[in-house]
Amino acid sequence: MALAVAILAAGKGTRMRSRLPKVLHPVAGRPMLQHVLRTAHALDPTRLTVVVGLGDDVRSALDLPADIVVQAEQRGTGHAVAQAEVALAGRAQTVLVLYGDTPLLTEGTLRRLVDAHHRVGSTITLLTTRIADPALRPNGRVVRSADGRVEAVVELAEATPAQRNIDECNMGIYAFDAAWLWPALARVEPSAVKGEIYLTSLIGMAIAEGRGVDAVTTEDYSETLGVDTRALLAEAEAVMQRRLAHHWMAEGVTLRDPSATYIDVGVAIGPDTTLLPGTHLLGRTRVGAGCVIGPNSIVRDAVVGDGCRIEMAVVEGVGVPAGMAVGPFAHLHPGQAGDSYAV
Fold this sequence. Notes:
Radius of gyration: 23 Å
Number of strands: 25
Number of domains: 2
Strand content: 25-35%
CATH topology of the largest domain: Spore Coat Polysaccharide Biosynthesis Protein SpsA, Chain A
CATH superfamily of the largest domain: Spore Coat Polysaccharide Biosynthesis Protein SpsA, Chain A
CATH architecture of the largest domain: Alpha-Beta Complex
Structural class: alpha/beta
């Protein structure tokens, strides 16, 4: 079945206390929205739409093809998805709704969600996760029947004490039957408190109509982390750095202390290279094989040849010829060394 994707990226992110739009805050050197956009593109959708706010500069950060629609005023998640109808209606049988502040979502989890949605033929399939201490998370609780069917999603403010202790939480990521979605959105009543239109209202509506509502669960809560504070931004960075560390160690790179090593997603590293504590590989850096980088070194947008040693130094925007030793206490930048290797 044809798949369309809507990425919601219009939120102001006031809790970030920043003039930079929330979805443009970087994780591992890349704006959060770009992480989500790449994951969405990997699903090969027939149509991909990003919902942005009026007057923000989010669209300038889109580095892969996507349609843009504007949510002029933020009136809830359901209202945001409704803005994408003009771009997506009639283009696919399934609409997948994502968020621009969830940079840790993986292609594998989203494929499981979409595959289950198509296999079962549900009207809505939601992504849920198990949380060890539900009291710490404000997400809606997923209420299931004795035979495991989704009966309701109860928002925390309306949950009974027993429901508050349910460890399965709704993460707000959905696959919808498109033919049902668009007219259903038009029937959703705004909330009495804020006057906003919420996607979660569609779950109760579908269940009341006797339609199928199913869930796919990921055991990795971090995947679904929505970043709307600086503390959660740091949490997302830590998770992404652990992923990158494991990836490069599997590729033959030694990280003496992964927790004290920082690698951007655009970096490439050759085998048998060793990264010592305090090393930062940033931007579009390329490091050859058999190098030793660190301790306490920054390499940014540079090309480092095989067998180099960079110790307590800063190297940015230049090429370092194979076998060269840099530092300690050196700063190489354009015009100083290796111009023929410059990025």
